[in-house]
């Protein structure tokens, strides 16, 4: 007998549900803040992963983190956008999982995080698992 949601949780592979790295907007750790803000605004996402040159996850940066950094006491200190690098502002605590992790762990992480970063066993960035993809999966199965 089909038992929802147990079967969905047991049978779903993170790899099948994730947004692959080539479709994920990201910034490099040594990019100036100005570039990160441009990527965030143009992509429309409020936060994106930060990678290094070898495609390893180093953090997450958001529009709020950048605006909070440039916010001075009486005015915005816009020169910080060119002076500071992503590394100085990003949050290095990335919610992340390996490609072959249990889907249940991803489910738990998306309670507090809108997306979870996925890496392979060598630590290379493979993509993200979003709340949207998870809710879509459950909605589809509810209608079965
Ligand atoms: P947010 O940017 O805060 O977006 C919240 C939700 O709004 C997204 O949920 C999505 O449903 C919608 N949304 C926002 N911008 C969108 C856009 N440009 N195109 C289509 N839909 C958009 P999720 O899809 O569950 O994404 C959760 C979070 O994952 C996003 O939060 C964002 O931080 C990140 N994310 C999702 N897709 C991404 C991608 N391709 N590249 C980089 N980051 C992504």
Automatic annotation (TrEMBL):
Keywords: CBS domain. The keyword Ligase does not apply. InterPro entries: CBS_CbpB, CBS_dom, CBS_dom_sf, Diverse_CBS-Domain. SUPFAM superfamilies: CBS-domain pair. Residues 18-78 form the CBS domain. Pfam families: CBS (PF00571). NCBIfam families: CBS_CbpB (NF041630). This is CBS domain-containing protein.
């Amino acid at each position: 007998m089909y038992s929802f949601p147990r079967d969905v949780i047991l049978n779903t592979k993170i790899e099948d549900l994730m947004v692959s790295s080539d479709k994920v907007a990201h910034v490099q750790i040594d990019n100036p803040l100005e570039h990160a803000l441009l990527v965030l605004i143009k992509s429309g996402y409020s936060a994106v992963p930060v990678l290094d040159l070898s495609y390893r996850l180093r953090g997450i940066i958001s529009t709020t983190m950048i605006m909070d950094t440039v916010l001075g006491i009486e005015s915005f200190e816009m020169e910080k956008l060119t002076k500071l690098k992503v590394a100085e502002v990003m949050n290095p605590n990335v919610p992340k999982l390996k490609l072959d992790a249990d889907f249940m762990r991803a489910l738990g992480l998306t309670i507090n995080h809108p997306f979870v970063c996925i890496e392979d066993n060598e630590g290379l960035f493979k993509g993200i698992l979003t709340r949207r993809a998870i809710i879509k999966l459950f909605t589809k199965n509810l209608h079965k």
